[in-house]
Amino acid sequence: MGNLKPLVIGELVVPKPIIQGGMGVGISLSSLAGSVAKAGGMGIISTAQIGFREPDFADHSLEANLRAIGKEFKKAREISPEGVIGFNIMVATKNYAMYVKEAVKAGADIIISGAGLPVSLPAHLAEAAAETGTKVKTKIAPIVSSVKSAMVILKMWDRKFGRVPDLVVVEGPLAGGHLGFSRESLTELGVDTPDVEHTFHQDAYDEEVKGIISLVGEYAQKYQTKIPVVTAGGIYSHEDVMHQIELGADGVQVATRFVTTVECDAPDAFKQAYIQSSKEDIVITKSPVGMPGRAIHNSFLSGVSQTPFKLEHCYQCLEKCDKKTIPYCITKALVNSAEGHTDEGLVFCGSNAFRAERMETVEEVMESLVGE
Fold it and tell me: pLDDT tens-digit profile of 254-313?
């Protein structure tokens, strides 16, 4: 593995410092997460509408989702009895606290949380401990995108809960799905054009990453502990991994590269959308909840602005969704894609999705990333 060391998070040891990013709806479930953990990385299950295949999902979305958390974790654990397996839970999720507690009760090694700042995450962990009457071993990791957002989390967790994160994930502007940046800042960083590899101001964002690592180091020193920092967004090759390690990161989080694996939970049509995409197909689009997101342009996105939308059913997915003004239902759009109807749905992706040329195995991707 060259210069790569295991990722150590307290007593958790990830032999290869690769975290597989959480991808919802239905893209990173038990098969992908379990396979990555088995291959020596950290497997992450996304809780975003995780129960969409449950028979009562339409009428009882919350119950179906909470039930599926335990089911998916159990299946992932069967694939990798000893590996590190956790969940990605979006702060923007309705009933966020319930998802966190359910993941803890399922036995999650770690919870990674973004799509908003997880200021209350330690409190929900304490609630889970009180409800189960046991000591919670689940580690918690906020996703941040700037020094400013990292400062908010570190300061608040320190002041309010007397603790620091077990891990910090820095998600950059090349990531897929919902992005923790305004449209303006994406323009400033040069990542809202199809020619991202030439327009992205890498040096500017590298300085931001170094600033976050330095800030996290200050809090680690205060608590006499080690807080690993993992970077994410646009990491596709071994060279990309090594660039992040040279910046001072302890590991990387990779999502897009794992989509076109045999073990990924996505349907074949979703994987083929990546393989068949060109650089020009990857666009920044506005999500119904107002956040910019990166996706593959298709007939669904073309038709969104031209087709009048009427909400027929609400899945109670996101806290800040205004049912009266949304251009489309994000749950319906993502479930359509997760069921293989990609022309009728939203296909979230990272900036490098067009580089996928063939199907691989998780083992092959892991070897490629760590340089074996």
Answer: 999 999 999 999 999 999 999 999 999 999 998 887 789 999 999 999 988 676 677 778
Look up the CATH number of domain 7-265+355-370: 3.20.20.70
Angle between the N-to-C axes of helices 96-106 and 121-132, in degrees from 0 to 180, rounded to the nearest 10:
50
Residue 186: strand, helix, or coil: helix
Q: Determine the residue type at 126.
A: A
φ, ψ at 288 (rounded to 5°): -55, -25
For β-strands 229-232 and 139-144, DSSP reports them as unpaired
CA dist., res. 31 & res. 346, Å (int): 22
The greatest distance separating any two alpha carbons of the chain, rounded to the nearest whole angstrom, comes to: 56
For the chain, the domains span: 7-265+355-370, 270-344
- Rounded to the nearest integer, the mean pLDDT of the chain is 94
pTM score over 0.90: yes
What does DSSP assign to residue 151?
A: H
Supply the DSSP string of 46-110, one letter for each residue. E-TTTTTTSTTTTT-HHHHHHHHHHHHHHHHHHH-SSSEEEEE--TTBTTHHHHHHHHHHHT-SE
